[in-house]
Amino acid sequence: MKEHAACLYRLCQIPGIQMDAAQELLSEIGPRAAAFASPERFASWVGVCPGSQESAGVCYSHRSAKGNRYLRRVLCQIAWGAIHTKESFFAGLFGRLLPRIESKGAAWAVAHRLAKVIWLVLHQEMDYQEKGPAPQNLETLVRKLRRLTRQFAAQGIDVSSLIPQANAATT
User: Fold this and answer.
1) Mean pLDDT per 10-residue section of the chain, whose length is 171 residues
2) Cβ neighbours of residue 122 under 8 Å, at least 6 residues apart?
3) Which of 75, 87, 105, 155 would staple 101 via disulfide (CB 3.0–4.6 Å)?
4) pTM of this prediction?
């Protein structure tokens, strides 16, 4: 692995990836991920793509393809590590997905995104740059405030006195 130290260093910059996981990734897909033409094909080969078995508009299964079971296991472990890395993009992605899907599904989506990032880092020989969690815009926060206010009202709790006047005018 000495000749691939630069690749290992680039992989270890990604949140959730430690040296042993980077070595396993490198041994499975190679230092340039040259066997895969795109990040989507790599994610499909690993088996972390969302599945959709559909016929005549009826969805019968959301099961993912089997793929490479060794890399699936490693990517799932990396995904949980990236989720628990504070102030990372992947933790923010997990937090955004969690209200809509269960935690395992959100972690699976993070593993899918990580597979694409790993391919980019290896194939294009670029360093990973952490941008931090995506900032929430004002519209998203206002929608969240309205939703929470309705949920509290359904439980019989009046929170209108707790909302500051600037936000009360927008609701």
Assistant:
1) 94 96 95 94 91 76 79 96 94 91 93 96 94 78 87 87 58 50
2) 7, 10, 11, 29, 30, 31, 32, 33
3) 105
4) 0.76
